[in-house]
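User: Show me sequence and structure for the first protein, then do the same for the second.

Assistant: Starting with the first protein.
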Amino acid sequence: IKGRILNYLKKQNKDLKYKNTQGDTSFAAAGKLIINKTLLVMSHPSGEVVYNFQAEVKNGKYRFWLTDFEFIPYQRDRYGNFVASTTVGIPLENNPGKLNAGEWKEYKAQTAKYAKDLGTKFKLYMSSKTPIVLPTPEKKVVKKEW
C-alpha cells in the first residue's frame, strides 16, 4: 500500500506535489487548483486554492485527508496574463463579508467538487488490482578488465 500511495503522489505532478514522508507510514503532498470565473462566453481564472494532502498507512489500511484550503486571488499583470496577486492565502473557511459572499460561495462549491473528485480518483487508484512495480536499483559490477 505504501508503494501505491507513493506512486500515486509522484504521478500527480500537475495537481499534487509530493513533499515528504514522515516516518514510514505518513505521506504529505501540497496541491493547488485553479478557480475559474465564467462570464457569458469567456472564462478566466479568478484565483487558486492551495491545500495539503495527507495519507497514512497502518495495518494494511490507509486513510487520507485534505487540509488547509487557502484562496489566492489572481490579477492581470502588465502582459495581460493572470498571476497571483499575493503569496499569502486567505483561509477558505473565513467569511469574507457581504461584498464577496456570492463569489466566495462559488469558490467553496468548486473546491468541494474538486476535493470530492480527487478523493474518488484516489480511492479508485488504491483499489485497482494492477500491481505497482517499484524500480529496483541496478547493481553495478566493477571489474579490472575492460
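Switching to the second protein now.
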Amino acid sequence: MKQTKNVIKEKKYWNKIIWSNLFFTYALLFLILCCTCWSSAFNGDKNKFCANLAFGCFLLIVSFVLIVTFTILNVKKNQNILKYSKFIAYLYTTWIPIAGAITSYVYKIKENKLVKNKKAYAPSAYTILFFLTLVIALIIWIIYLTKGVITYETDGKTVTGVVPGILDVLMSPLKGFVDAAELIIFLLIIGAFLQIVNASKSIEAGISAIIKKMNGKEIYLIPVLMLCFSIGGTTFGMCEETLPFYLILTPIMLAAGFDTLTSLFTILFGAGLGVAGSILNPFLVAPAVDAATKAGVEGLTTTTGIAWRIITYALLVIVGITCVTYHAYRVKKDPKKSIVYEQFEDHHKHFKIGNTEQYQLNTKRKAILWIFGFTFLLMILMVIDWEGLIPGFTGFTWFNNWLRENLPFIWSGEHGIGGWSLIEMSFLFFTSALIIGIITWKSEEDFLQNIFTGARDFIGVAFIIAIARGLSMMLTSSGVNSILVSGLSNMMNNINAQLGILIIFVIFIILSFLIPSTSGFASTVFPVMGPAIATSTSGLTVSGAITTFSLANGFVNLFSPTAGPFVAGCSLCKVSLNDFYKGAWKTLGIILLTMVTLILIGTTVPKLF
C-alpha cells in the first residue's frame, strides 16, 4: 500500500516538473518571439521579421524535443534518475533555471521517498522588484537588438531611448531614491511623527476606549473607514497618503479580533477602488484630458463622462466593502480561517496588542489624539486644490496674499493653501510632531531618540519605493513605453465598441504594470491613444477610454509589485506578498468582473460613458 502511494506521489511529482517546464519554456519563448517579431514589424523589415519568426520556431522545436526526451527518461523511473531529481529538474531546460527552481522548491527527493517541504520559500518584495528590473532590462535589450535605436516624442521633442547596461540596472534603485525623494522624506517624517505619538501611549489608550465603546460592533468600522478612504481616492488620488494609516488601523483591527489582512484590505481596497473609480481625481482625470486635448482631441473636459464615473465609483465601493466586511466577519467568527492565522501571535507582539488596558485616556492623551486627528484632517483638506475644483473661487489666493503682505514673518505665501505636495504635507506632520513633543517633553535626548526610531521604521519601505521607482524610470527612459503604446493603438481601427473597449482594458492593464503612476500613464499613453480612439470607426469615446484607464490602472495598483504604495502597505502590515495573493485573489476576481461588466454596459450608453 505504501509503495502504491509512493508511486502515485512520484507520478504527481514528475507531472508537476513536466508541466511547469512546458509552461515556463513556452511562456519565455513566446515573450521573446513577440518582442522580436513585433519590433521588426515596426520597421517594416519583412526579411528581419521572417528571420525572427523562423528563429523563434526553431527554439520552440528544440525545447519541445528536450522536454519529450527527458520525460521519456523520467517515465522509466530509473532510481538513479530519482536520486538526482533536482539536477534533472534544471536539465529540462538548462537555459531556464526558473522552471527547475520552482519545481524543486515545491518537492524534494530524500532516500528515494517524496517528502513535502514544511515551508515554501517566499521571496521578499525587494527580491521580486529587483528581479523584475533585470527582466525589464533584458526585454529592452531584445527590442534594441531587433529594432535598433529607440526614439520617442516627449514634450514636443524627439528623444533617443537609453538602453540600460549592467551598471545602469544596479544604479536604477539609487536613481529611484532621487526621483522619489519627496515621498521618502514624507515617510521618514511620518515615521517620526507616529513614534512621538506612540511614545505618549495615546493611541493605545484610544484603542482601548474604542473597543469598549464598540462592544462587539467593531465590524461596522470597516464600511465607514473604506468609504472615507474611497472618497479620498476619488477626489484627490489618495495613495501614498494612506501609508501612515496602516500603522494606526492595524492595532485597532487586531485588538477587535480581526487579522492584519483586514487592516490591509480596508485601506488598500478603500483608497484603491476610490482611485479606480476616479470622479475628479486631479492626478488621473485631469492629466488624461490634458494630454488628449493637446494631442488634438476636441470637446473633451474633466466633466465629460462624469455621470458614468460616479456610477462606477459607487458600485466598486459597494463591492469592495461587501468583500472586505465578509472577510472580516469570517476571521472574527473563526480566526483559523485567516491566511495569516499562524502569525497571529507575532503580529500581536509586533503591534503591542494586549497592553492597552493599563493606559488611561487622560486629558493630555485626549489632547494629543485631537492634534493627531486634526493633522490628518488638515492634510486631506490641504491636498485638494479647492480653487481648481470650485470654478470662480479665489478665496484662498486672497487670504494667501493677505498673509504675505501683512504677516510676512509667519507665512511667505510661497506654497499657498490647497493643492499641497508631499513636501508641504511633510512640513505639516513635522510641525505636529514638534507640538506633541512639547506636550510630552521629557528631555532632548528622549525627543530626538523618538524621531530617529520612527524614521528608522520606514527605511525598509523607502527602499521598496526606490526600487519600484527606478524600474518605472528605466521603462520611461528606454522608450519602451512609447513603442508599446504606438503598436497597441494601431489595433483600435475597424472593431466594434464592446470588443474595442475590452482590448483597451487589457492593453491598459498590461501597460499599468509598466507605468503604475496615474499621471505618468496619462501623459505617456493618451497623446497617442486619444487621437487614435477619436478618429477610429469603432464608436468608442475618449472619455470612455479615460474611465477604462482609471479602472485598469486602479485594478493593477491593488496588487502589482511595481506599485510602491501596495508593497509598502504590505510591509507595514507585516503581510507577505504570498499571503496577500492567497487572501485577496477571490476579491480581486470579483472586482475585475465588476469592472469588465461596467465598461461593457458603458459602451451601450455612449452619451454617459
